Amino acid sequence: MSTIAFIGLGIMGSPMAVHLQNAGHTVRGYNRTPDKTAPLVEAGGIAASSVAEAVTGADVVAVMVPDSPDVRDVLTGEDGVYANAAQGTLVIDFSSIRPDVTVELAEEAKEKGIRLLDAPVSGGEAGAKNAALSIMVGGAEEDFAAAKEIFDVVGKTIVHVGPSGSGQTVKAANQLIVAGNIALLAEAVVFLEAYGVDTSAAIEVLGGGLAGSKVLDQKAQKILDRSFDPGFRIELHHKDLGIFTSAAREEGVVAPVGALVGQLMAAALATGDGSLDHSGLFQTIARLSGRE
Ligand code: NAP
Known about the structure:
The protein has helices at residues 13-22, 38-42, 51-55, 68-76, 81-84, 99-111, 124-129, 141-154, 166-194, 199-207, 214-225, 234-250, 256-273, 281-288, and strands at residues 3-7, 26-30, 46-47, 60-63, 90-93, 115-118, 121-122, 133-138, 155-162. The chain has 292 residues and is an alpha/beta fold.
């Protein structure tokens, strides 16, 4: 069993840290807003008051914060992971960030004798709570093997997809697919409601055919109920579509549908819906038809 420092105990990090503690590891959690350490402490874990305190003496460091600058701060800041972790420490970054930033951070880690894996996840808050995440891992094969027992505690589908940064590239594709699905589901609901169709019946039958999807299973009811508590916030999905768009542009990949969905997500953010669940993209799409 390992001593694990867990940095970032938000919607995703908190249940993941609790699962690791319950599996018998010793988890020292740090969160910028200290009261979010409560569920981990209730499970028998330890609340650390700084990144340095969490990381000192840990075998493994897990990070789950929002964006590339946040991961950079946590890893390379004065009081950060690289400054305080022992040689050979395995750092697992579960956050969804830019692949190129991951590659830079992995190089900096190597210079310090630290091993970095990018391990972004999919499956949402439900996946984190149920320890059923899909985890797409980039980095060295032997580091993936060393981290496998930790991934098995929080995830169900765990795949090493290639060298450093590859996990983040796969996650960008994941976010493109999910956003496109939500946008089309939202349009379908606007269309069905405009015709006065029994939407619950419609969703049931659509779910049994080729239109069925995990997005439909997890998000259709939220849309029908206009219940957009996050979950996964629109501001984070906007961030991810930005990651996809710039990485696609870098390689000369043309993604017209992705560009359109990215603009719709940007409109949702610009009109004040950033803190809603990404299924709240429905509101932006409904407004285009003069409906709510
Ligand atoms: P969240 O609830 O906002 O949690 C983020 C945590 O990071 C918060 O506890 C926050 O602390 C902390 N944090 C933010 N900036 C920081 C910084 N600069 N330094 C130190 N700590 C910082 O977000 P989340 O939904 O868990 O998402 C985390 C990551 O997982 C993101 O990259 C997201 O894209 C990805 N993800 C999320 C989901 C989902 O369904 N939510 C699914 C898959 C992947 P405070 O409490 O002080 O704000």
